[in-house]
Amino acid sequence: MLIRPARSEDIDALLGVERVAFDGGEEADLVAALLVDPSAGPIINLVAEKNGVIVGHAIFTHAVVESADGDVDATILAPLAVAPPAQGTGIGQALCREGLIVAEELGIGLVFVLGHIGYYPKVGFEPAARHGLLAPYSIDPAVADAWMVLETRPGIIGNVRGVIRCADAMMHPEMWAE
Question: For position 118, which CATH number holds?
Answer without folding.
Answer: 3.40.630.30
